[in-house]
Amino acid sequence: MMDYVVQTNGLTKTVKGITLVSNVNLHIKKGEIYGFLGQNGAGKTTIMKMLTGLLIPSKGEILLFGKKLTETNKSGLKRVGSIIEYPIFFEHLTAMENLELHCEYLGYYDKKAITQALELVHLKGIEDKVVKDFSLGMKQRLGIVRAIITKPELIILDEPTNGLDPIGIKDMRDLIRMLNKEYGITFLLSSHILGEIEQIVDRVGVIQNGKLVNEVSLAEIRKQRADYIEIVTPDADRTAYLLEHELRISNMKIVGDRRVRIYDVTQSQSEITKILILHDIEIEEIQKHTSTLEDYFYRQIHGGEIIV
Amino acid sequence: MFKLMELEWRKLKQKMVISEMIIYLGILMFLPVFFIKMVMADFGQNYSVVIQLIVSIQLGFVLFGASLINQVFIEEYKNKTISLSFGYPISRKKLVMAKILFISLAVFLCTLVSFVLTGLATYLIDQVFDIINGQPTAADFAAYFSKMIVHSFITALISLIPLFFFGIWKRATIPTVICAIFLMQFQNFSSLINITLDPALVNAVLCLLGFVSVYLSIKMIDKVGDI
After folding, report:
1. What is the 3-state secondary structure (H, E, C) of A249-265?
2. How many angstroms separate the CA atoms of A174 and A166, rounded?
3. Residue A105 and residue B85: Cβ atoms within 8 Å?
4. What Å distances lie between residue A138 and A86, A117, A120, A155, A237, CA to CA?
5. Do the Cβ atoms of A77 and B89 come within 8 Å?
6. In B35-91, which ranges are continuous DSSP H helix?
7. Percent above pLDDT 70 for chain A
8. pLDDT of amino acid A307
9. Which of A104, A155, A156 has the highest number of chain B CBs within 10 A, making it the mutation to test binding with B?
10. Residue B101: CB atoms within 10 Å
11. 3-class secondary structure, A81
12. pLDDT value at position A304?
């Protein structure tokens, strides 16, 4: 049996008759970085809230480290660190007081761990400052400190780069990678910036209207990538005919009435251009496209068709 | 559980709570004497009447209870800091129980201290300015001591009446405070509209309501306690 850190079976959340999350069967493997993809309001945060005990599921079950998470047995949460939506603190307390409170609730009494975690996130020297004086970026970093302080095996981060400047975003990415590689910590991340997710995740789960549409590894997406050369021309039919008969290209399709896509990207663009010009075909544009995670996401969301 | 109660205290704006406590203790300490001297001299006819007056005045701590409900529950919901607690490997019921025990213990102890201070202040002022007829008897001391314990407990329980509906369900500060004011003035209101109620019966009903509120708060937290 696969070693899943998180597994959900038929996870459902209904509030006042509205289904926010429906029948989600999630599988997060030990040691992987798993990313949630989904539009705003798709249900990513609701799922994360249920996984961290903030919301109680209406139906279905959550298995954390193989053990069922219930209101009467939340022991799995001892091994989880998280930031959901935005980092919340007792604003009138200092950073250190907040971190100590967190450790006390988890029964974790290693004072050095706080200092180490602060150093890791470059937040030394702020221990005695009151949190209400922190910028959003600093709160985000402090939230990360709190999430990693007790050395959890799973970290759940909802929009972890919110409020961070570009350097902060890079630092965050490096930190996640480092914690994953060096300490084997499993991550569940969500971000509305797909490029950001693409750079660090191993697998993605696509959430649409509260449903988990697909779970797929990034390697799989890369394999499926439909890189192509696209020609925009007013004479798409004749272009396709010429490409087939002159250059023996068969792996192509006409999209709309002005675009021809050639999926055999080994074809030389100059050769294609030469043939088309020789036959008086007007070329408005010829370009090589590399599909991204964003394209995959759009294909998933819009029923397998890339919106052109 | 004591650890969780201690953590509740550490999360509070302690200076504010202590200041509030001092203000309550300070005002209630001199209120019986002020009442006898300035409002109704009848209360000074003997020490057993003064004891009744002190007992009814100590209900003021129901308002302190409302303030604690506000800080321990409502503010935590409004600032979403309650989500931090819910994310720990501790059941919501246990967390709520710790919060309730913290509030009730705080109200109980403050009322107890207030009873002692008010009793001492009233006695000492009476020794200097002679505002109460006669001297307290041994029976008065015994009655005062037993009422001090019982009524501190009653006050703590009554202070929890607004908890479930206004504190956890509606999460509304002003109704919580208004409810507390109504509860502490309930006996006065009833006499104003010429309804004579047995104080013991009123206390019993209010205690029952407090108990029901506590029960529902713990029982229903999984249903109405989502953030």
Report:
1. CCCEEEECCCEEEECCC
2. 12
3. yes
4. 12, 14, 14, 19, 57
5. yes
6. 47-57, 61-69, 75-78, 82-86
7. 92
8. 32
9. A104
10. 16
11. strand
12. 44
Tell me the chain A residues in contact with residue B80 when contact means C-beta distances shorter than 8 Å: 88
Asked if B88 lies within 8 A of A74 by C-beta distance, the reply is: yes
Which chain B residues have a beta carbon less than 8 Å from that of A77? 87-89
Q: Among partner residues B3, B88, B222, which is closest to A71 by beta-carbon distance? A: B222
User: Which residues on chain B place their C-beta less than 8 Å from a C-beta of chain A?
Assistant: 3, 7, 10-11, 13, 79-81, 83-93, 222, 226-227
Q: Which residues contact B193 (CB under 8 A, 6 or more apart)?
A: none
Q: Which residues of A touch B90 (CB under 8 A)?
A: 74, 105
What's the residue count for chain A? 308
What is the average pLDDT across A274-281? 89
- Render pLDDT for B83-106 as a digit per residue (tens, 0 to 9): 888 889 888 899 999 999 999 999
Question: Do B88 and A55 count as a contact with CB atoms less than 8 A apart?
Answer: no
Q: Which residues contact A188 (CB under 8 A, 6 or more apart)?
A: A6, A28, A34, A35, A36, A48, A51, A154, A155, A156, A157
Token reading at B31: 């209120």
Inter-residue contact B162 to B179 (CB < 8 Å): yes
Contact flag A89-B89 (C-beta cutoff 8 Å): no
> Does the pLDDT of residue A145 top 50, yes or no?
yes
ipTM: 0.82
CB B227 within 8 A of CB B83: yes
Of B25, B67, B26, B31, whose CA–CA distance to B178 is shortest? B67
- The C-alpha angle A127, B16, B24, rounded to 5 degrees, equals 160
Cα distance from B88 to chain A (closest Cα, Å)?
Answer: 6
Give the residue among A64, A77, A31, A299 at the shortest CA–CA distance from A177. A31
Task: Give residue-wise pLDDT tens across range A26-42.
Answer: 999 999 999 988 878 88
Q: Which of B10, B87, B222 sits opposite A56 (nearest CB)?
A: B222
Amino acid residing at A71: E
The answer to whether the CB atoms of A104 and B3 lie below 8 A apart is yes
- The closest CB to that of B11, out of A49, A52, A90, belongs to A90
Find all residues with CB under 8 Å of B6, minimum gap 6, and list them.
Answer: none
- pLDDT given at position A305: 39
